[in-house]
UniProtKB/TrEMBL annotation:
SUPFAM superfamilies registered for this protein in UniProt: NAD(P)-binding Rossmann-fold domains (SSF51735)
InterPro entries assigned to the protein according to its UniProt record, in alphabetical order: DUF1731 (IPR013549), Epimerase_deHydtase (IPR001509), NAD(P)-bd_dom_sf (IPR036291), SDR39U1 (IPR010099)
Species classification: Bacteria, Pseudomonadati, Acidobacteriota, Terriglobia, Terriglobales
Protein name: TIGR01777 family protein
Species of origin: Terriglobus albidus
Gene3D superfamilies associated with the record: NAD(P)-binding Rossmann-like Domain (3.40.50.720)
Length: 323
């Protein structure tokens, strides 16, 4: 992480109890920033925690006054089966939190300077080609709705498009807006994706998943937090930004380097039909593993952001040591 004290004064995190929220809270708190974490289930922390219901404007809006940035990360987990009930929860929770954030900003005499709203690289179609922010202008243009794409994959793309559209349409005069098209953020925290993948690799189960040809876009947790701070400080950046490393790689290579880092020479592959079966048993969806995500961070690169861990070999070594 960056050393020294940040120039920022106050950052508010909505949905701050999740893995990304905790990562950002620790980072900014360590940099001397006043952190206020707003969530449905606030827990004691070294920073201020406030409760909200994710959709109703209430007393929690007072913490927006004079903030340097509000970062809305709220939304129900997609790591579940896409039943009708869960689909409604996944979409509505994101739209409700976005609308409530906008209303809270408009209610302040001294509104936040910038509003960063979570989004995802799942707005892009399944592709092996690099996808910068300029790849699409909206969900209808992605090609993600063609007949060859599994319906559950189309659902995720549609959710992200509607989420960004809701964010784009909200008027918050005087507050800059940035859509954080986040990829797979990897940290050694308990319960995170990296913990699961590295454990599988250590037990010899870290082979390629599906064909292994699908691309993995990823980012080290340190670079995620640094990129968010960079976007807060850069007043010339607005709109969608891919929050990824500059070097996506194939699933096959991603898993090979992970096995190498944990010193496991073998890794049993997980064929697509096996992933589909295990997804049923684990109550999740195959799209989380099998869809190719090859997003590249063109906006960050063009504005001079530098990564501490730009490539997977250096990142995975650091993550294994942190584990």
């Amino acid at each position: 992480m960056d050393q020294g004290v940040s120039r920022l004064g106050k950052v508010v995190l909505l949905g701050g109890s999740g893995q990304i929220g905790q990562t950002l809270a620790r980072y900014f708190h360590g940099r001397g920033v006043e952190v206020i974490s707003v969530s449905r289930t606030p827990h004691p922390a070294p920073w201020t925690t406030v409760a909200w219901d994710g959709k109703t404007v209430g007393r929690w809006t007072k913490c927006f006054e004079g903030a340097d940035a509000v970062i809305n990360l709220a939304g129900s987990s997609i790591n579940t089966r896409f039943t009708r009930e869960h689909r409604s929860l996944i979409l509505d929770s994101r739209l409700d939190a976005t609308k409530a954030t906008a209303a809270a900003i408009r209610s302040r005499k001294r509104p936040p300077r910038v509003w960063l709203n979570a989004s995802a690289v799942d707005i892009y179609p399944h592709t092996l080609a690099p996808t910068p922010e300029t790849t699409i202008s909206g969900y209808q243009d992605t090609g993600a709705m063609d007949s060859t794409t599994p319906e559950s994959w189309r659902f995720l793309s549609e959710v992200v498009w509607q989420w960004e559209e809701a964010f784009r349409m909200e008027q918050v005069p005087g507050t800059r807006k940035v859509a954080l098209r986040t990829t797979l953020m990897l940290s050694p925290d308990q319960g995170g994706v990296f913990r699961l993948l590295s454990t599988l690799a250590r037990f010899g189960l870290g082979g390629p998943q599906g064909s292994g040809k699908q691309f993995v876009s990823w980012i080290h947790h340190t670079d995620y937090a640094r990129a968010v701070e960079f976007l807060i400080e850069r007043e010339d950046i607005a709109g969608p930004v891919n929050i990824t490393s500059p070097q996506p790689l194939s699933n096959r290579e991603f898993m090979r380097l992970l096995r190498q880092a944990v010193r496991m020479p073998i890794g049993l592959p997980a064929p697509a039909f096996g992933i589909q079966l295990s997804s049923l048993l684990l109550r999740t969806e195959p799209v989380l593993v099998l869809k190719s995500r090859c997003s590249v961070p063109t906006v960050l690169q063009q504005h001079g952001f530098t990564w501490s861990f730009p490539d997977w070999p250096s990142a995975v070594q650091d993550l294994v040591l942190g584990h």
